[in-house]
Design brief:
101 residues, mainly alpha, Actin-binding Protein, T-fimbrin, domain 1, 69% helix, 0% strand
Length: 101
């Protein structure tokens, strides 16, 4: 079937479906990878977006892949958690930059 055989709405729907399929595959692939990293901590991500939303599992994942201990923010302190995660990435970037010099 060519694009000439598909009505305009059908073509747009096919493109949208293709994007949704790719996102689904990426989400599933990342979830499997993250779970392989979290397995040593007896943690698991079931729904990527929901489970990482509060940042707790995200911090666990960052610790698992960096092999560094990150400070645990107070429970319910979303801004502190956000700053902790940003700080981790900033320090990792600086460390990597210094290693390449």
């Amino acid at each position: 079937m060519t694009s000439k055989d598909v009505p305009e709405e059908g073509f747009a729907a096919q493109i949208r479906k293709g994007k949704e399929d790719r996102l689904s595959v990426q989400k599933k692939t990342f979830t499997k990878w993250a779970n392989s990293k979290l397995a040593s901590r007896n943690l698991e991500i079931n729904d990527l977006f929901e489970d990482l939303k509060d940042g707790v599992l995200l911090l666990e994942l960052l610790e698992a892949i960096s092999e560094e201990k990150l400070p645990k923010p107070d429970k319910g302190k979303g801004l502190v958690l956000f700053i902790t995660i940003l700080s981790f990435f900033s320090n990792a970037k600086i460390t990597k930059r210094n290693e390449t010099k």
